[in-house]
Fold these 4 entries.
Entry 1:
Amino acid sequence: MGEPEVMRAVRITGHGGPEVLERAEVAVPAPRAGEVLVRVGAVALNNTDLWTREGAYGRQGDPEALSGWRGPIAFPRIQGADVAGRTVAVGDGVDTGLVGRRVVVDPAVYDGEGPDANPVGLMGSERDGGYAEYVTAPATRVHDVTDSPLTDDQLATLPTAYGTALGMIERGRLREGEAVLVSGASGGVGIALIQLARARGARVLAVSSGSKIDAVREAGAHDVLDRARDIAGQIRAAAPEGIDVALDVVAGQLVGDALPLLREGGRWVVAGALGGYDVAFDVRRLYLHNAQVIGSAMHTPAHFALLMDLARRGGIRPVVAATFPLDQAARAQEELARRVHVGKIVLHPWEESTAGARG
């Protein structure tokens, strides 16, 4: 196939801190029937990288258990869900016309083949991911973005953050003219939610911290609420008639405080638990107002196809906060965990290590 037999990769050998990330030289994976081999141009980091490494997802009936996204992880595991690159080889039964094309990989492992299939696994968790020079993927999950005006770095920010955001917006049935609350607004998913909600014509109320408020406003939020102050009071002041949809990656106390501020028939969509998974709210505010609490994990194939259409048109402009060479993956994850950046952190598998990150 003209590619090397060995590649550099970074993988986790067990659950723990950044020290469990190890550099390794491993065999370049061979694409099986129905798969393609992608030379990774850029791979973006996500909170799921941290939580998978830490085993922070818990298990049904045992919320404190060390676990990956959907159960035990097979170690060693190459992390990295968000890959942009170029197809360099194909397995049996795959159109050879894909070779040489610029692509983004849909990282989800689905429970079926239909457009509304549910994600039940994730590249970098249930299968090896893009913290490597090459990665394989099913040909059906590789999207040709050769003509996109976005850079590889920008394209790599899309799959998990923007896919999750679009899944939340679609499941929450956000419509033009509605008022939407976005929590965790300075993170990768938060910035994506702001941009996508604005593009849909919604009025965006974003929750962030003092040092990031200007950047969140620049991303397109109409109103930015300081999470260090009384959030419910700020929502009432900014949207006296209430909010139609909450797009929430924080959960915790925010749900109990702000759920009563949903309008009739409002939807509260949860896709994360940065503020804590143990939630309490007044259930009367739910059923008396025909409100809904909706869980949203990633996206469907149909959602991802919509996202790739946006990428080809350059209809979104992702924010890249910093880049690191692959061998500084542990440092990049530490930077992500500090949560001082706005936008996404990206690794370059083919870049040699230098003095530090560029951002």
Entry 2:
Amino acid sequence: MSTLTSPELVDAVRLRLAESGAEPTPARVAAALRAEGRLLGDSAVLGVVAALRSELVGAGPLEPLLADQSVTDVLVNGPDEVWVDRGGGLERTTVRFADAAAVRRLAQRLAAAAGRRLDDARPWADARLPDGTRLHAVLPPVAVDAPCLSLRVVRPRAFRLAELVAAGTLPPGGDGLLRAVLDARLSFLVSGGTGSGKTTLLSALLGLVGRHERVVVAEDSAELRPDHPHVVRLEARPPNQEGAGLVTLRDLVRQALRMRPDRLVVGEVRGPEVAELLAALNTGHEGGCGTVHANAAGDVPARLEALGMTAGLDRAALHSQLAAALALVVHLRRDRSGRRRVTEVHVLERDADGLVRTAPAAVWGDEGFVRAAGWARLARLCERGGSTP
């Protein structure tokens, strides 16, 4: 920022406009500058207008990054440290804020737009912006060096499976296997770490559901946007400042069951709602699905066991329901280069002790999925549903 449009001058103009509630038009900015005893040329006035609008409209300096269709995440670690992820790992950008206060103002404005409080008494916020972007912000002193801002971009259009094959997320021909799973109405979970592409894949898969079916989605934060004509989306809600109004994901799953779903979808299984989901999938709700955090497909039963404990399910009860409710796990991994891949598809089966374990049915191969020990079971499950993997 030039000396003519220094942060101090912009702050002074901002305060004058805030007192009157006026929009930062060129004429009003020029009047505020005259009141400050500064007479600037047209280009300098327009510079102040641009600086103010970048703070008052949209995501400010981050707007061009969010508009880039290849960007999935925007991370602000400080006024001069802005990173993006375009699917190939984190890249540092040339975007800069005037100072830490400018980052704080943007974070607070975005949080307010999402109906969240963000200040010294509540120094963090996790919310969904009106356009669907996922916001997380942390202010000092919790954020030690400067305010931190994380934006997860949700695109208005879901990817198609063919696009995921082209992008290398699925191996060649891998879309055929997943189509067979959907057609057979098998219940499944998409597992993987944070940022591995679970939501992207699940959105694409839901777009393959029959057009005559009703899809009811329950999410902690609404991110799934499947390309389907009959989707009902439910979103959890945190309590207000008085501690009232809390709506949990478990509440939403219970309500979804009363909404005649042909496909029940839980955006992310992360707590006690696992009990309602497993119960639903055991009572005629075929083809249900969701996502879960796990480091490997083989870790999913243990992960669900831990979540079941929060719902009061003991180990035996959880595994008994799990064995009858879910058919398979589709696992994604993000490698060190940032590429997201469906590395394995596992089927679920019970061991001699009655506990559920997973067995690999298909694993990643450069020429397509490679069949593994559990392939015969997966083929039988699909054939029962009238499809061929």
Entry 3:
Amino acid sequence: MAKISRWWPGGLFLFILGLPSGAMAELSRMDDTDLAGVSGQGGIYLSGDISINELGGPIQNSYFGACGDEGKKCGARLAYRLKEDGGWFVLDDIRGSFSFEGLTLRVRHIDSGFGGDGELFNRDVVELGLPNVVRYHDVHFTVAASNTARPTDAGFQQTDLFSIEMQGDVTLEGNLLVFPTDSP
């Protein structure tokens, strides 16, 4: 028998015929009274494996290079200016990987609790359900201060404050609630 290596119209027909009869059930409309008796739960359940510059980023210059190059930074860089005319807060040399299972995201209504403030609030919030375990593998980053945003800018000077390396499992429990604020 010949091996079929691509879809062909007859193959789709045979696939549909092979479905169990329940898979071909017809959808029907529900009126409002029937729908009122249905309850459900909404939300998102996420699992992931995220890697950041494990071998170094795509930029090769006097500052960035491969992770094996002595004296070069190989990870990502984020710079934040805290004041309009101030210096820069920097997360530098960010690299490694982490994985998690069971991060949840849903909308929750708060109308009680919080020392009586929940009743006054009476609105929806975003609830992030923290995953039970986050696994870190060779995660590394440096916290620093800099006079410019980019290491290639003229007069660049950076002071590394401390470096963090993480390996292993971290247990997270609970939820993080994100409360909306009214914009001015």
Entry 4:
Amino acid sequence: MTTPPGFGPPTPIQPPYGAPPAPYGGPAPYGAPHQAPYGGPAPYPAPYGPPPPADGPEFVAHDRRNSVIVDASGVSLEINGHTMDFPWPAVATVHHAPSPHGGAVLMVAVAHPSGMLYECRIDAKRKAQLHQWLAELGPVLHYYLANRPPHA
């Protein structure tokens, strides 16, 4: 009695080009997940040396929908309830300026090492609040970004 087609053990398939070798020299078990080497790769490249001290200065600005937080862990942008966290190794630089169209709007942009730019705008209730944010944000960014070598 022969086994009908489609039944029985699975047909071995060739691993894709560049796939890691199977453990112990044999084929990987059917359906076995690919596992990275112990510890895995670093989540971000570390071109900027040691991380900043944990007790550094902080900056927080927010309005009804958006916010910016800069602290020892990195930069967080919240836009309409969606948060993007950028640890310092994932930050090439941070730009900030008042809105060029007048009004009391703080614009903050995080440049990722890949070249992507993420921008957040925070409405200040008064121009005095905007000027205070601009005066506070510059020194905090300088503290975290000044001692890093230039991005390659």
